[in-house]
Design a protein that fits this description.
Blueprint lengths: L1 H16 L3 E7 L23 H5 L3 H9 L1 E3 L2 E2 L4 H10 L3 H4 L32 H7 L3 E6 L20 E3 L40 H19 L3 E7 L23 H26 L6 E7 L28 H4 L3 E5 L7 H5 L6 E3 L3 E2 L3 H9 L15 H4 L10 E6 L9 E6 L2 E6 L9 E6 L15 H17 L16
Parallel strand pairs: 1-6, 1-7, 2-9, 3-10, 4-5, 4-6
Antiparallel strand pairs: 2-8, 7-8, 11-12, 12-13, 13-14
């Protein structure tokens, strides 16, 4: 009997190892323009370099893009917690109701925000994909920023939501410091936001990005030695504030004419890029690069200290930045690649990824969940609604007529860079709806044609009333479908569009 049980276990283990390793390389506050890799395509579908692409140095991202596929249009939520919840659930923020960034200590619903928004974040009842990978025999590893739930919630500890290993993650949304000599905030800096679990690097010159990378590399080597397929949630605190310079790279930017915060931000970007290269080297050294998929992703629009939330500076030529309603607030870099492409590799034949290609069809963070399940050969949980679709065809460089061409971004909160709004894109058209619950003003709309006006310079809502009305109708239908919550007016009533 015991021998039979061992045979079954061994068979299951071998089957599990017949699946690819998966790395989600997630960068905090990295927008689509915070890189030397050009993503933006013109009217003819040609990718063009812009000045910011010449400012940043991300050579390992360039390498990843050359050996894989990048998406010219990939959408996230405008702030981190909604995005991170959308990634792990495959649902839009309006549906999972974590519609604002989570404050560790308090409910930050704001004056007119919905009372029932999910500020506690992810809990153990949600069928998040790390749980599914875990059950399928994957070792699930979280390294870096979590920000899945508030202090005292189940989501505060990634181990409660499907991760076998948690290094450096809890409820905080930013590091107390990037400096090892400051204990990453424990010794000096914002002590309330000290990064946990990295005490061995305290009082050293080890930059936070590097410490997390070394810990992730150690976990990769261990999994490789044991022959266990792994999922690594490589979730950097970089490039989020505070803008503390990674002094290994500042000399590359000191003669730029830009101010110190901008130089520090660029050094954080380059340090993140070095991390990517270091992990790719680790995969090659352990002999598992051919069997490992890397998904590179930003969690919301960029926050480069180069301009305000509504102008064309931080995300130039796009308008806006993190937290805004404009494209610069929600467009993020997305690259998919095998760590070492090999046309003869049987796993790569099962899940082919085009090399050196740009995918013009739109993708979103809700697509990550079904994509990872398809990579691992896992079925979607019964009864779990997904707002995304697998990117398998798109990552192979093909078109997918069944992939949706609309995107809803719902932010029913205020006191941020943009207040109480919903954006809805359908094809080339984009509507921005402002609820204005705390003013005497009535709700208002803006309309843009992103094909003709990709940088959102001219509001055409008044000159295109029929198009505005049509998108407003579709936006309302999506909000109802996703059971959205709405801002609350001074009398306690929902402000439905």
């Amino acid at each position: 009997m015991f021998g039979a049980c061992m045979a079954v276990w061994q068979c299951g283990a071998l089957h599990a190892q017949d699946r690819p390793n998966i790395i989600l390389f997630l960068v905090d506050d990295m927008g689509v323009m915070d890189t030397s890799v050009p993503f933006l395509a013109d009217k003819d579908g040609e990718v063009r370099l812009h000045p910011l692409n010449k400012w940043y140095r991300t050579h390992n991202m360039e390498r990843l893009a050359e050996q894989g596929i990048r998406f010219s249009t990939f959408y996230a939520q405008s702030v981190s917690s909604p995005s991170r919840t959308s990634i792990l659930t495959g649902q839009n923020a309006a549906r999972h109701r974590t519609t604002n960034w989570i404050d560790s200590e308090r409910n930050n619903r704001t004056a007119h925000g919905p009372h029932e928004w999910n500020w506690e974040g992810i809990d153990s009842t949600m069928p998040v994909y790390p749980k599914l990978l875990q059950k399928a025999g994957y070792r699930t590893i979280h390294v870096g920023k979590a920000h899945f739930g508030c202090r005292g919630s189940e989501g505060e500890d990634p181990k409660n939501i499907g991760f076998d290993i948690n290094i450096g993650g809890n409820s905080i949304g930013q590091p107390g410091s990037y400096y090892g000599k400051w204990g990453y905030g424990k010794i000096r800096g914002n002590k309330a936001r000290a990064v946990p679990g990295l005490d061995k690097y305290h009082d050293t010159d080890t930059f936070l990005t590097d410490a997390l990378t070394m810990e992730a590399a150690r976990q990769i080597r261990q999994a490789a030695e044991e022959g266990i397929p792994f999922y690594l949630n490589m979730s950097h605190y970089a490039v989020h504030q505070p803008f503390e310079a990674d002094e290994r790279f500042t000399e590359h930017y000191e003669n730029s004419g830009k101010d110190l915060p901008a130089v520090a931000f660029a050094s954080l970007v380059e340090g993140m890029d070095k991390s990517l290269g270091d992990l790719m080297k680790t995969l090659e050294e352990t002999g598992i690069a051919e069997n490992t998929i890397i998904l590179f992703l930003g969690d919301n629009g960029g926050d480069a200290p180069l301009g305000g939330a509504a102008d064309h500076a931080s995300s130039a030529p796009l308008r806006g930045k993190k937290g805004s309603e404009y494209e610069g607030g929600v467009r993020v870099p997305f690259i998919a690649s095998w760590a070492k492409p090999d046309a003869g590799n049987r796993l790569q034949k099962k899940f082919p990824i085009a090399q050196g290609r740009v995918q013009l069809q739109q993708g979103t963070i809700m697509d990550i969940y079904p994509t990872i399940l398809s990579m691992a050969g896992i079925k979607k949980p019964k009864g779990h609604t997904l707002d995304g679709r697998s990117l398998k065809r798109l990552m192979a460089g093909k078109q997918d007529s069944r992939h949706r061409d609309d995107f809803l971004m719902h932010f029913p909160h205020g006191e941020h860079r943009a207040n109480y709004f919903t954006t809805y894109r359908k094809g080339d058209w984009k509507l921005i709806y402002y609820y204005n619950p705390g003013t005497t003003g009535i709700p208002s709309c803006k309309l843009y044609n992103l094909k003709e006006d990709p940088y959102e310079t001219t509001d055409i809502a008044n000159t295109h009333p029929r198009q505005t009305a049509m998108l407003l109708k579709m936006m309302k239908e999506r909000l109802v479908e996703e059971n959205a919550l709405y801002p609350i007016d001074k009398d306690g009533r929902e402000c439905r569009p």
